[in-house]
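#struct-pred
JK: can someone run the complex with adenosine-5'-diphosphate? inputs below
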Amino acid sequence: MIELKGLTKHYGDKVAVDQLTFTVRPGIVTGFLGPNGAGKSTTMRMVLGLDNPTAGSVRIDGKHYRQLKDPLTYVGALLDAKAMHGGRSAANHLLCLAQSNGIPRARVDEVLDLVGLTSVVKKRSRGFSLGMGQRLGIAAALLGNPRILMFDEPVNGLDPEGIHWIRHVMKRLAAQGRTVFVSSHLMSEMALTAEHLVVIGKGRLLADTSMAEFIQENSRSYVRLRSPERERLLDVLHRAGVRAVAGPDGALEVDGVPAERLGELAAAQRVVLHELSPQQASLEEAFMQLTAGVVEYHARNGGGPAAGRRGPSRPAVPERALSVGPPPGSWGTGRQRKRS
Ligand code: ADP
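RT: done, structure tokens with the ligand placed:
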């Protein structure tokens, strides 16, 4: 387990990490999410004793990193794929690490095979592509067969095959009962990999929740309806106590009522429908919403997460058409948002 208690890091006036308290558990992949500059790398560096906390503490299986004997056999990490001696071959790079941590030489060949670098063992790492560098970094993390693994933005710069491979590796390591802690600024990537999420923004904890709970609380499902007889449809829904809101393109959107029921209501009154489609708002959108107020670097016009999105502020249809039902944009108002 990795346990953080009130972990804080200041760089001069800058608060990079602000009183983080959470636990990373074994057997699952825990995604560590936040916009760029949120404090993810700083947190991971403090876990590994590479940076000293200004306040608070972090423990690995109850110990400070520096108290671990042969630390690579406890915790393996990929923080920066380029942080290696460019003049060394892949095999020599791993051999140096193995010898300083009491790891047998045979393990070097094993991990090179595991990450698919056997054919380039003699090549100097300065000639490696980003993807090969990431694979070598993962080999180094796996070298000591540790129970705990940390990866900082491991899919950055990888091609789809590499991304698929890393996803698979992380899930397999977790399935073996290991603790896998992986950072990303991409919600879509984490949605495919992590079972648990820790979300931070500007160094502060925004959410510590299971992926299933995050999806349930933050991704809004609704039904889209389009009709050439929009006013009649609104009346029919209104009389049935169904609340509809206007989507950005003029279509109607209804929360909390199944598509089947809406279709039956329209059919009973012979209202023509051109569209009746269940929708699921993306988790990416939910994540952007959650972190909108804590993004460090915004694009000036329209490019920032807070700009131009459809969300809870969608316009409702004219008042006369509104009726009982769930509030519009009820997604994203859950526990996580309140914390921020
Ligand atoms: P993330 O990994 O989430 O992108 P970082 O941990 O790299 O975020 O950075 C968090 C904040 O701390 C950023 O504002 C960054 O500029 C600042 N920061 C990180 N390292 C240093 C440092 N060595 N000196 C000064 N500021 C730093």
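RT: quick notes.
The two ends are 26 Å apart (CA to CA).
The chain has two domains: 2-216, 222-278.
JK: thanks, will look after standup
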